[in-house]
Amino acid sequence: MALCLCFSMVGAKPLIIESTRLPLSTDGKTLNTTVLQSAIDRIAHHRQGGTLILHKGTYLTGMLHMRSNVELHLMPGAVLLGSTSPYDYDEPGSAAQVGEKSRTALLVASGQHNISITGKGVIDGQGLELALTIDSLHHIGERIDPNYNQRRMRPNARPKLFFFDRCDGITVKGITARSSAEWGISIDRSSHISIDSIQVVNRAYWNNDGIDLTDCRQARITHCDINAADDGICLKSEYAELCCDSIYIAHCRIASSASAVKFGTASYGGFRHIEVRDIEVYDTFRSAIAIETVDGGIIDDILVDGIRARNTGNPIFVCLGARHDERPGICRNIIIRNVDAEVPFGRPDEAYDLRGPEVDYFHNPWPSSICGLPGRYIENVVLENIRVSHPGRASKAMAYVGSYRLHEVNEAAASYPEFTMYGELPAWAFYVRHVRGITLRNIKAEVRDKDFRPAFIFDDVEGKTEEGVWPPTNL
Hints:
This protein is mostly beta strands. It contains two helices and 31 strands. It has helices at 33-45, 127-139, and strands at 15-18, 27-31, 50-54, 57-61, 64-65, 70-74, 78-82, 97-98, 101-102, 105-110, 113-119, 122-124, 160-165, 168-173, 176-178, 185-188, 191-196, 199-202, 211-214, 217-222, 225-228, 233-237, 244-256, 261-267, 270-293, 298-320, 330-342, 368-371, 378-390, 430-447, 456-470. It has a five-stranded parallel β-barrel. Strands 8-9 form a two-stranded antiparallel ribbon.
């Protein structure tokens, strides 16, 4: 059947196509992929580009390819609803899966420029239903996932909400993005990115990150509200010749069953010139801020200014490691200031259906940690204007590593990086090891119940200066 697109065009103005003039179904049951993709393609071929406007209604679709100079605008009440059939995300001959990294999504783009997703509508991936369908098809042998995760009993080949790769000029503004089968908004090797004033609710299934930028540059993430069953905002570096560079994250509110703002785990090229400002963190299982290089990448010129964390498992985690027997990276020039954090005694993410995996041994509450490796120091760290409130209640009967046993604390160079990686730690507020050049200024550590451990431990630390630290450190 021939498809007729009705549109308005005057002279050289951008092309506007409205959903009310297209043969679209808004019942949420009839697949609209062909009509929507044809409209996007038509706009892309117009010399001035233009906008596809979705009016109120529920538009069921499979994977859509965003094109250069196209804006997808969702009016209030418009819902772009992802299909629950994995076959609606397939393309013959495409590399949909690279190892464990899915390259499919509800919205995809590769090598495009000036693409926008805007409006007050909703993009809903129906992630739980989609993931369970993929899982069932694997188990009956109809659609085998060669990288199926046997340990956690889940498929890896699951579509994201967005996957944009090697694009220049990306705007995401105003929308609500929810319920992906995997990561939410995922952008790789792209530049000139603006993500502003969006809400992400991604708690449908495993690996439900909120926003992921991989080896991107010139990016801004601002005024976003994120609730994610995995990392909230995550910077990654998968390519040794690239890095995340010149990224600004500010004025966001984040809850996570993993870490709120995280650099890593993938850290091959690294992270440079990153600013994180004015972040509210709540009900987060792991770290409010996690800065990690464990794959040989370089961390340099990082500013974290303004974090208010409540009911958060760990305020600050900075790690230099070496996974897979690879060379250690470089971690230097980090400023963390204006942090106010309160750590609970129990799990802060009890309300999540999918909770971050707990360690399988007895332990006391963990401190913040800043740890390099023997002979490979984290360099030039400033901690300023920080208040941390910890629960205390450490018990020698639970676990006991006295300060005279510092040499027994695991280096964990090849371990997956997270604040529990070193095992039991002999401090309750800050544990700092293998650091060269650290300044502590106006630091207040509070404990709400008795704790037999000291507040601060510094092990193999050179060039420490402090001013206004309470309680006094072990100088």
